[in-house]
Amino acid sequence: MKKGDHLFLVDGSGYIFRAYHALPPLTRKSDGLPVGAVSGFCNMLWKLLREARDTSVRDTPTHFAVIFDYSSTTFRKEIYPEYKANRSAPPEDLIPQFGLIRQATKAFNLPCIEKEGYEADDLIATYARMAEAVGAEVTIISSDKDLMQLVTPLVSMYDSMKDKQIGIPEVIEKWGVPPEKMIDLQAMTGDSTDNVPGIPGIGPKTAAQLLEEFGDLDTLLARAGEIKQQKRRENIIQYAEQALISRQLVTLKTDTPIDVGLEDFGLEPQNGPKLVAFLKSMEFNALTRRAAEATGVDASEIEAANLKIEAVAEARGPDLDSAGSDASPEAATASSQMVVSSKPPSSNVSATPADLVKARTDEALSAKIDRSAYTTIRDVASLQIWIDEAMASGIVAFDTETTSADPMQTEIVGLSLATRPGKAAYIPINHKSRDGDLLGGGLLEHQIPEAEVFRLLKPMLEDASVLKIAHAMKYEWLVMHRHGIDLHPVDDTMLISYVLDAGEGHHTMDSLCDRWLGHKPLAYKDLVGSGKSSLTFDKVEIERATEYAAEDADVTLRLWRLLKPRLVADGLSSVYERLERPLIPVLARMEERGISVDRQILSRLSGDLAQSAAAIEDEIYKLAGEKINIGSPKQMGDILFGKMGLPGGSKTKTGQWSTSAQLLEDLAAEGHELPRKVVDWRQLTKLKSTYTDALPGYIHPDTKRVHTSYAMAATSTGRLSSSEPNLQNIPVRTTEGRKIRTAFIAAPGNKLISADYSQIELRVLAHVAEIPQLTQAFADGIDIHAMTASEMFGVPVEGMPSEVRRRAKAINFGIIYGISAFGLANQLSIPREEASQYIRTYFERFPGIKDYMEATKAFARQHGYVETIFGRRAHYPEIRSSNPQLRAFNERAAINAPIQGSAADIIRRAMVRMDAALKDAKLTARMLLQVHDELVFETIEDEVEATLPVIREVMENAAMPAIALSVPLQVDARAAHNWEAAH
DNA sequence: GTCCGACCGTA
DNA sequence: TTACGGTCGGACG
């Protein structure tokens, strides 16, 4: 090697862990072997080497090596036995990848370097200094701060994941000190992930400031007495020795004995067949193709390499010898080789996702939760230690404690973090004393100021390499967004559970904790009480709050470790990653925007309704002959069917007379006056109490808009639900009801756009059941209910009586709902035999429907769940019940779920894509509401015409490219000043 | 104060 | 005949 050469040193071990956490989990298709980190690693090497051939890129390597940790026992353990003693075993689905990445390195024809007793960092330091000594340039492919001490004018670092060069200025910018002072800085701050002690209370900021003032650690220790802050001075004096040990630990060895010299790192040409064989064995299809093209080999002629998984110890995380496993140092460091396709013999090394899930399930149940082990963070330095640990580990579970369940109204009281199972802390921020004056208690002491907490947390919360985990992340996201934080990337244990187990009970943290961890966490109610005497969380004692809040973060992290691998094992990763996780920020922003509701219109309507209802009330009292509570079905039933002796139809299951609208309508049709009045009265009072009177109470005091809350994990089918207020059941069917919608208005200068799918569920049915007449009718754009009627009854579409079409329409809906003769008879008010005959006729005309329904039932019976076209599952654990009614109910639901659920998935896909599509088109339209098959937007008037086609385009193509539907999707979109007119 | 059933608004 | 959430009355404590 000589001056002008350029050596690339890849921190292979560092890369593995970072890639594992930062990249989406990926498994080999054929057998589920986890290969996410291998994939990231190969792509990175490919990119680095491709640029090496590209002469237009300046910084190209002439020499190249990939460096790995060898084992966990290094010379540092002799200096300080506790070094890295806090490391837990690596994730099980990472273990097989250690060996694979080494094989990948060899497949790329690159030197693969490791040395017993030394860490990769020491080898990198040694090689970097050697190359520098002969005047060559060095690029270290890593973002590890431990390597930053090596940076010089000739040595720089490159963060391949963020595509960021790290030179001297970047080090100074990030740490406040030049590279040569990094060792002293690390010696002072310590490193919680490696268990390097440092000096308590000294974080990077303080350390940089002290180094600025005193020059170096030795001088600082010598002149520590000059430090003004008492606590800091005491700590530095008391822990001086510890700082010196820490310095030894963090100082990289530049004289590591080496077996391979720089001259052997010269970049060799690719061995095309060898590389392609490896990539093929990993089933990295895109990269295989690229590699074959670039090296000029025919991939189809090359057989996939016959891979073996070597058990390899990695000092970075896997402390295999202390993990209590049977992986002895010998087994770990030598090459106890296992063929991938066979089960690993009596080993806890998980080769398949199922093994991993099994291991994690056992782990979750056996590990006990100890609330007394949690920490309360009351000062900036301690907080920084936790943040550093989160940054280093790349994973953190968190939970906010707030004053309200409504993220739009709430104040943050505190925040908890968990970095490892059992390791969690609570940061009290706004706890108040309970016995305050009338204004409420004052802020308690020893809490870090809110602004400071957010300032410190923000970089971590927004760091692309740190995964933030919460239970019900949308709430956290929204609270954080309102504090100016763009939380990402995220995982949500509630949504993971929902994807895995929709239909198997609720997905609250308490129920999951009980189910999976066999543990009952502290109940919120026990802290704050209930009812009138309940407190807001800011009045909870900090000690109690710590136990509760930290436990939530701890439990969230434990649940994540258990549930996340199940996504891979069950083949549900894409449902989670495409339909659930990306919807979190989309829905959060919709909730945050809210919609404008006109108070005056509602108030006027309320008055009108009150008047009309009062008039009807008087007439009802007259007809009934006494004053009763009309709103009481019990009292109304007694009057109608007891006192007045009308023919009562059915009784409810509690033995009361049924007074359903349907039944009263039937009585009215027979000429009875009172039932008609009751039906009218009910409609008016329903509109008044549920809508005109309740909605104004939801207008936000600051935004003056109404902010609903969408539940992402509430339904068994994949639909959303809306509450507080429910904006998915605003009246539309009756003239009176529709007036409510006129109160939903666009902001001044804006319009509302309503875009809804036409007959989406019937279209989905036509697709999944493959019904030629239906697909043809949708392709031709003809009236689907009329076509159905025509097929069934032999009546031509032209001049069809409306009653005939109405019946066909009811049957079509009935099919989607898992039709029964009883239900159809009820709906159409016809005898059950007649309904039965309709259904028989329908199935004769559309035999594919019958086949589809039978096949769906059989699938559900066999598997206990059904699937949408995108693979979302809905579970029906009671479908094999011996109770015929219960079983039949589950069968109908199972028939409905793939149809309703596929439609729900389609609109979810549209929503996930919508913001980017509008942005690309440079439009300002914003999504406000979702009503199952409808999206409501708000946009400035001038952009309406340009916006409509963009919305339609996204919605109509939402199934693509995952699914090419056999029917077109049709979207009707209109703009107006209010929702009624736009719909 | 809390729970449940009846009823009814939406897709 | 599918999927939801809100309001009310009434019974329970």
UniProtKB/TrEMBL annotation:
Keywords, comma-separated and alphabetical: DNA damage, DNA repair, DNA replication, DNA-binding, DNA-directed DNA polymerase, Exonuclease, Hydrolase, Nuclease, Nucleotidyltransferase, Transferase
5'-3' exonuclease domain span: 5-268
UniProt cross-references to InterPro entries, sorted A to Z: 3'-5'_exonuclease_dom (IPR002562), 5-3_exonucl_a-hlix_arch_N (IPR020046), 5-3_exonuclease (IPR002421), 5-3_exonuclease_C_sf (IPR036279), DNA-dir_DNA_pol_A_CS (IPR019760), DNA-dir_DNA_pol_A_palm_dom (IPR001098), DNA/RNA_pol_sf (IPR043502), DNA_polI_H3TH (IPR020045)
Coiled-coil regions listed in the entry: none
Protein name listed in UniProt: DNA polymerase I
Catalyzed chemical reaction(s): DNA(n) + a 2'-deoxyribonucleoside 5'-triphosphate = DNA(n+1) + diphosphate
Residue ranges of every copy of the DNA-directed DNA polymerase family A palm domain listed in the record: 737-943
EC class name: transferase
